[in-house]
Amino acid sequence: MNLVELIERVKALPEEKRTEIYDFVEFLVWRESLSLTAREQDHADWSEVDFSAMAMQQAMGDLEDEPALYDEDDLVERWK
User: Domain-by-domain residue ranges, the chain?
Assistant: First the structure.
């Protein structure tokens, strides 16, 4: 549905329903502005250490789920 179709469908509704749509659109705009502000704040507060920790977590995150390839029986030499 494009914008013109949407406008035509909204025009066909009773005034009461158009008011509900307007209120809903205002809510969505408000929520999006909060979301953008939070995302901008999150990125602005990241230090180099925070970013490095996040990058390492993303890179290594799935390794815990992988099965172990070797066990103690595969050791050739043991440290005492």
Answer: 13-47
